[in-house]
Design brief:
heterodimer; A: mainly alpha; ABC transporter involved in vitamin B12 uptake, BtuC; 16 helices; B: alpha/beta; Rossmann fold; 4-stranded antiparallel β-sheet; 11 helices; 10 strands; 22% strand
């Protein structure tokens, strides 16, 4: 239970926080009336709050340590256990399928629209998961490829009248090319250095779009991007949203399907080998150049497809949609969901995108909440919400 | 017959330090050779130079795979060297922690496989067959090494001795003609060392392999090796069979120090 030492520690943490937050929480300067208000009651509440928060933090930390002592670190997460069980898996998938099928018909358009953005983030998350989770390359400029996809559709449509369906494969190829383009200069970089260069790349793409007026219409953006067409049938706004919703569902299913296949392929194994040990990976005959480039290129492909959907859904894009915050949100989805775990990333996308939408009150503090969440996840569950598991190969008993 | 590995005048300089100084080593087909020397003598640097992790300052490394013509390894990347048929293990175990034992071995098969992105996405006929064969081959290697009971275990959860053996299994999966083992017996107990001794001899006799090992366990080195090369301060000071090396005054001096120096 709580020992004297812990109470003492929590007390000092509370004291420290009171000192630290004193200038912003207690002192309030009214510049019009030229008076300074001291809100001492705030100080009191911060002290009490931090004291108990510190105690809880400590409690959970100990709980985790005790747990580690008693069990091995490689227990399979509950979700995976359930999904491996056929008796549970099939009904579960049916319920899930029915839910997503009827969702746009029972909920108002607003909710469907939010669900579309969550599903787009699932795609983006799974794409970034290839780069960060599997290949272990920290990419902070992922939004650049999202931007490439969105602008590819918007510009091709504006100038050549290219339809949504044609824009999808074109931008996928473009994303692949841009991924390779970014991959080349950063082949030698790792860790922090890689993160900084990719961050720069993401910003460069955005700044180009903002300033190359004749090409991208600059900060005014591009408006009137048409939604996807359905055999020339005129759809009203509500039906269009429902239509896009089903397109996104199909794309997400395709992404899940392909990413799962990649993960357990020759290429996927090479990515994980590269993540786990770069030198051993090369010594085992894997080309670092090829492996890194395919990771960047394939990761970028999904982002680019996601960008097309985004442009079609919002019908208006400008460079402000593709800031560094977007990259960080996608990265949070991957890290909090579980690096290298497709199910984790999907769960992470729903949690991180849907929650702020429904908790409008905290939407302003979204980045603060993301940061706090990340710290909590890193301390208590470093492998993410749902840990990835590797494929189990079955062998027939070898007869003696 | 030409030696399968011929290292000539290999020199590696780091800044002002000559880690290797004109080292010449040859290895014959079917030989178990050992590279010994005190700590910091440059043994691992030698391995790194051959396998392309370092680019040697000067010197030539030529290989003659059995039944093929000679070729130089100059300027090749580590993965290209592995593809030529040199496989290595590491002094401090470098397994892929996040993968299962079988997948670790399958990584070794990587350079003998061809499937690309398209095959992976659409599971083409060729890709499926190749994958099946890789799984089968890898499992077979695990059986040979005696690790098949761990097949779906995460590599990081294996006991220490088994991790060392898994590194050898992974190296074997690349289809090498020369196996480079960097301190394979480090940290093993006498029982495990004995098993390793048997394994290495078995590999030479049944897998048609030649082996070059770095090792500090002198009992193992003396019982295993056909030929021993001794390096000290980056210089090769002796070579020969175990008996010759044991009685070589230079070697005794390198290991035990000179009497006059100690005074």
């Amino acid at each position: 239970m709580v020992t004297k030492k812990e109470i003492k520690q929590a007390f000092f943490i509370a004291l420290w926080f009171m000192v630290l937050t004193f200038p912003i929480m207690v002192i309030k300067v009214n510049t019009i009336k030229n008076i300074v208000i001291f809100r001492w009651n705030y100080l009191f509440w911060i002290g009490i709050g931090t004291f108990f928060a510190a105690l809880t933090w400590n409690y959970f930390l100990q709980l985790k340590e005790n747990k580690q002592k008693t069990e091995t670190s490689d227990d399979i997460p509950l979700v995976h256990k359930l999904l491996q069980n056929a008796r549970f898996k099939i009904p579960f998938l049916i319920v899930l399928a029915i839910f997503f099928l009827v969702y746009p018909f029972i909920f108002p358009m607003y909710h469907t629209s939010i669900m579309i953005s969550a599903l787009v983030y699932v795609m983006l998350g799974l794409g970034l998961n290839i780069v960060v989770g599997l290949a272990g390359l920290l990419d902070l400029g992922y939004v650049a490829f999202y931007c490439v996809g969105a602008y590819a559709y918007a510009l091709l449509n504006l100038h050549f009248g290219v339809s949504f369906w044609l824009a999808l494969p074109i931008s996928a190829v473009l994303g692949f090319l841009f991924g390779t383009l970014l991959g080349y200069p950063v082949l030698r970089l790792r860790g922090d250095y890689l993160a900084i260069v990719t961050l720069g790349f993401g910003e460069i793409i955005r700044i180009i779009m903002e300033n190359w007026d004749s090409f991208s219409n600059g900060p005014r953006g591009i408006a009137n991007i048409p939604p996807p067409s359905l055999f020339n049938i005129d759809l009203n706004q509500h039906n269009t949203v429902i239509y896009i919703y089903f397109i996104v569902i199909a794309l997400v299913l395709m992404t899940i399907f392909f990413v799962a296949r990649l993960e357990d392929s020759r290429i996927g194994r090479a990515w994980i080998a590269l993540r786990d040990d770069e030198i051993a990976c090369q010594a085992m005959g894997i080309s670092k150049v090829k492996t890194k480039l395919t990771a960047f290129a394939l990761g970028a492909t999904w982002a680019s497809i996601g960008g097309v959907v985004f442009a079609a859904k919002t019908s208006y894009i400008n460079p402000m949609s593709f800031t560094i915050w977007e990259s960080i949100t996608i990265l949070s989805v991957v890290v909090i969901g579980g690096m290298g775990s497709a199910i984790g990333v999907i769960a992470g996308a729903f949690v991180l995108i849907l929650l702020p939408e429904y908790l409008r009150a905290v939407a302003e503090y979204r980045m603060l909440v993301f940061g706090a969440l990340q710290v909590i996840v890193m301390v208590f569950k470093p492998e993410g919400l749902i840990k990835g598991v590797r494929k189990i190969y079955k062998f027939k008993k070898v007869e003696e | 017959m030409e030696p399968i590995l011929n290292v000539e005048n290999l020199t590696m300089i780091f800044g002002g330090l000559k880690a290797l100084n004109n080292v010449n080593i040859t290895i014959e087909q079917g030989q178990i050779a050992a590279l010994i020397g005190p700590n910091g003598a440059g043994k691992t640097t030698f391995f790194n130079c051959i396998t392309g992790i370092y680019e040697p300052t000067t010197g030539d490394v030529t290989i003659t795979p059995p039944g093929k013509s000679s070729q130089s390894l100059k300027g090749l990347k580590p993965n290209q060297v592995t593809q030529k048929g040199l496989a290595r293990t590491f002094q401090n175990i470098r397994l892929f922690q996040g993968m299962t034992v079988l997948e670790n071995v399958m990584i070794g098969r990587h350079c003998r496989m061809k499937a690309g992105i398209f095959g992976a996405l659409f599971h083409t006929h060729a890709q499926k067959n190749e994958e099946k064969k890789a799984i089968y081959d890898s499992y077979e290697i695990l059986e040979k090494i005696g690790l098949e009971q761990y097949v779906n275990e995460m590599a990081k959860n294996l006991p220490y001795g088994a991790q060392r053996r898994l590194e050898i299994a992974r190296a074997l999966a690349t289809d090498p003609f020369l196996l480079l083992l960097d301190e394979p017996a480090a940290g093993m107990n006498p029982q495990e060392t004995k098993e390793l001794d048997d394994l290495i001899i078995w590999l030479r006799d049944n897998e048609n392999l030649s082996i070059l090992l770095i090792e500090h366990d002198m009992k193992l080195v003396m019982s295993l090796s056909d030929k021993i090369h001794v390096v000290d301060y980056g210089k090769k000071i002796a070579q020969g069979n175990p008996e010759e090396v044991k009685s070589n005054p230079e070697v005794i001096k390198a290991y035990l120090g000179d009497e006059s120096e100690d005074a």
